[in-house]
Amino acid sequence: MEARVATIRAGQAPEWVWLVEHPPLYTAGTSAKVQDLLSPDRFPVYDAGRGGQYTYHGPGQRVAYVMLDLRARKLGVRDYVCRLEDWIIATLATFGLRGERRDGRIGIWVDRGPNGLGGRREEKIAALGVRVRRWVSFHGIAINVEPDLSHFGGIVPCGIAEHGVTSLVDLGYPVAMEDVDVALRRTFGEIFGPVG
């Protein structure tokens, strides 16, 4: 990814989006707190160099690494992050699921109904963590399609302990990874325009 970003910045390669699926691992962003790594020996831990805190990546989760020339697209960093959120929300909407932003919380959330304590049960379905170097973006988003949700138990995901994590399949949406990829490709063009 670093090499690709450098070639995009130098004008030697077009923009690119990689759709990947990792083996089980934890990544630490630049704001990660050591106390939020609850099980340091469970999976490999990598210093990712992106913004944010600890997150989990693994089978059943679609990660999209987004390498765009923000200057050419006339996008500031906040606008870019907002568009990443819009991209996730539009992708989830393809399957009839409403993803939402929450003030003060990073990621995309779903409302699971009353929590029995007078509030709402909210769970995160997608995370984002970005880095921008000389106006070229890298890192990106992660959507939980059907990961083993117990694997998130080794960390405090994104530093948020009071809310859980969910997935499309956990919510009752029988969606395959290939379906998510088709939706991501289509909605990317709607939100960002063409890549390249």
Question: Could you explain how this protein is built, in words?
Answer:
This protein is globular. Strands 1, 5, 6, 7, 8, 9 and 10 form a seven-stranded mixed sheet that branches. Strands 3-2-4 form a three-stranded mixed sheet, with no helix packed on it. α2 packs across α3. Helix content is 21%, strand content 31%. The protein is an alpha+beta fold. The relative contact order is 0.22. The longest helix is centred in the middle third of the chain and has 17 residues. The mean pLDDT is 94.
Write the layout of secondary structure elements.
Blueprint: H1 2-9, E1 16-20, E2 25-28, E3 45-47, E4 54-57, E5 61-67, H2 77-93, E6 100-102, E7 105-114, E8 120-133, E9 136-144, E10 164-165, H3 177-192
Parallel strand pairs: 2-3, 8-10
Antiparallel strand pairs: 1-5, 2-4, 5-9, 6-7, 7-8, 8-9
Helix pairs in contact: 2-3
Task: Summarize this entry quickly.
This protein has helices at 2-9, 77-93, 177-192, and strands at 16-20, 25-28, 45-47, 54-57, 61-67, 100-102, 105-114, 120-133, 136-144, 164-165. With 196 residues, it is of the alpha+beta class.
Keywords for this entry:
196 residues; alpha+beta; 7-stranded mixed β-sheet; 3-stranded mixed β-sheet; 10 strands
**Strand segment tally:** 10
Report the average pLDDT across residues: 94
The dominant shape is globular
Over the alpha carbons, how many angstroms does the gyration radius reach? 16 Å
In angstroms, what separates the terminal alpha carbons?
A: 16 Å
Quaternary structure annotation: single chain
- Strand-residue proportion: 25-35%
User: What proportion of the residues is helical, as a percent range?
Assistant: 10-25%
SSE topology string = HEEEEEHEEEEEH
Total of DSSP H or I helical runs spanning 4+ residues: 3
Largest beta sheet, briefly? 7 strands, mixed
Please state the structural category.
Answer: alpha+beta
Low-confidence stretches: none
